[in-house]
Write a structure and sequence with these properties.
Number of helices: 8
Number of strands: 3
Largest sheet: 3 strands, antiparallel
Shape: elongated
Order of helices and strands: HEHHHHHEHHE
Strand content: under 5%
Distance between the termini: 18 Å
Structural class: mainly alpha
Strand order of the largest sheet: 1-3-2
Length: 267
């Protein structure tokens, strides 16, 4: 990340908060999956065990949606309120709540993300494959049902960590997207209230996985920032160059958020 760009930036606090939410989401997913695996102990026989396993895979997307949905709401509300609170401190007013437009935006983001299958397929697809393999191995090596279930739960407990890491990579992208949209909503409301036009920048985290498009954006955005329309126009230009003419912005704020890129106000 270029220090010259970030020396005078407002609103660059998002990454640490997202990291905390992701850590809590990982813990919540692990707890939920382990609780569901423990239900396999109620199996009466091998056939019942397979039935319960199949039901677990059917129910898992709903359980994951509930967990991710909670943190989508938390990320949006935290970012929106944090930005508005920083505006209002100078006015002596620190109480902040979501207005009608912000609430509608949150509802749209929440529903849109939860309709996407990528997060659930990433998690449940591999988990289902692993669980089926463990079931087959346990059936061959253990004739006692209780011993078989113990073996399955112990083996799956190790595999859960790998699946959670894969799934939360996608969840991180969604939470960054939601946070940036919330930050932009707060800025747009403030500009409408004051008549000011802010300058914006993108704080691009540099690393081996940073894409060429974001590296180019980091070079092209001036230190003093750009108006929102100029920033969007630049992203469109760079996006078309790297991804083709059919490419479009994700939401209102960013090219794509999986680079830990944060929309910020240049001040």
């Amino acid at each position: 990340m270029r220090k010259a760009r970030t020396g005078r930036i407002s609103g660059g606090r998002g990454a640490g908060t997202i990291d905390r939410y992701i850590s809590k989401l990982k813990t919540a997913i692990r707890k939920t999956v382990r609780q569901e695996l423990e239900r396999l102990r109620r199996s009466k026989d091998w056939s019942d065990l397979r039935h319960r396993k199949n039901m677990l895979m059917v129910q898992m997307p709903r359980l994951l949606k509930n967990e991710l949905g909670r943190y989508i709401i938390r990320a949006f509300k935290y970012t929106y309120k944090q930005e508005n609170r920083s505006f209002r401190k100078a006015e002596g007013r620190v109480e902040v709540d979501l207005n009608y437009d912000a609430t509608n935006l949150l509802r749209q983001l929440h529903d849109g993300i939860l309709r996407s299958d990528s997060f659930y397929e990433e998690f449940t697809g591999q988990l289902a494959t692993d669980l089926e393999r463990v079931l087959a191995e346990a059936f061959v090596e253990d004739t006692n049902l209780d011993a078989m279930i113990d073996r399955i739960i112990n083996a799956m407990d190790r595999r859960i960590n790998l699946s959670v890491v894969r799934a939360t990579r996608i969840a991180r992208t969604e939470l960054i997207h939601v946070s940036n949209e919330a930050r932009l909503r707060a800025y747009e409301e403030r500009m409408a209230d004051t008549g000011e036009e802010y300058k914006f920048t993108l704080v691009v985290a540099q690393g081996r996985r940073t894409c060429d498009a974001h590296k180019e954006l980091d070079r092209l955005i001036p230190k003093q920032g750009l108006s929102l329309s100029e920033l969007k126009e630049l992203q469109m230009k760079v996006g078309h160059k790297h991804y083709g003419n059919k490419w479009n912005l994700q939401g209102s704020a960013l090219m794509h958020p999986n680079q830990r890129t944060v929309l910020a106000r240049a001040v």
